[in-house]
Design brief:
7 helices, NADH Oxidase, binds flavin mononucleotide, four-stranded antiparallel beta sheet, about 190 residues, globular, alpha+beta
Length: about 190
């Protein structure tokens, strides 16, 4: 079957949820962030912001505040997660990129999704694992979470639309086979 480097990269990418402690290099982080900024975005307004955190202490603090926000929720599943000592929403990845945007921009979530996929593919092409992390999307307006992410550099008028965990996959893991539904495509000729 016909293929190329880009198609192979798209097919090879999988969500990684177990990482080693090894940090990604500054050069690779720069390339991944640059890929984000090259994503298509509505009217090319570029209202998005990418806040990369590589500081383990700050990542742990963020996870604790997200869990605290969960504890205030009525959802029993989130309540349970808040009490679970082992729960780490970013899977202890060495780098986390917060992707935020102005909620008044109609394209905000779509722009962020395009940027996130660009980062996933760029990371994959560099041998770096990644995963979409959603928990900050629902908790970014909790007062304690908000003041912490503001201190990290997330613009005050932004909502978080997703986060990108980045790191090296545990090499002992065998990636699960991806089963793709065959009923999701229609071609009319
Ligand atoms: C909008 C969106 C939100 C997601 N949120 C999470 C998340 O919070 N945590 C997580 O582990 N995976 C998350 N994922 C990853 C999906 O579970 C994953 O992409 C899906 O199971 C397909 O697997 P694959 O990425 O390995 O192909 C999210 C993916 C998307 C597109």
């Amino acid at each position: 079957m016909k293929t190329n480097e880009v198609l192979d990269c798209i097919k090879r990418r999988r969500s990684i949820r177990t990482y080693t402690n090894r940090q990604i290099s500054e050069e690779d982080l720069g390339l991944i962030l640059e890929a984000a900024t090259y994503a298509p975005n509505g009217m090319h307004l570029e209202t998005w912001h990418f806040t990369a955190i590589q500081n383990t202490k700050k990542l742990r603090q963020l996870n604790s505040l997200i869990k605290k926000a969960f504890s205030k929720s009525d959802d029993p599943h989130l309540q349970e997660r808040s009490k679970n000592e082992a729960y780490c929403c970013y899977y202890h990845a060495s780098t986390l990129i917060i992707v935020s945007n102005e909620p008044l921009n109609w394209w905000a979530s779509m722009d962020c999704a395009c940027a996130i996929e660009n980062m996933f593919l760029a990371a994959n092409s560099l041998g770096i694992g990644s995963c979409w992390i959603n928990q900050l999307g629902t908790t970014c307006d909790d007062s304690e979470v908000r003041s912490f992410i503001t201190s990290l550099g997330v613009p005050k008028n932004h909502k978080v639309y997703g986060c990108v965990a980045l790191g090296y996959a545990d090499s002992t893991l065998i990636p699960k086979k991806k089963n793709v539904k065959t009923t999701t495509i229609t071609i009319i000729k």
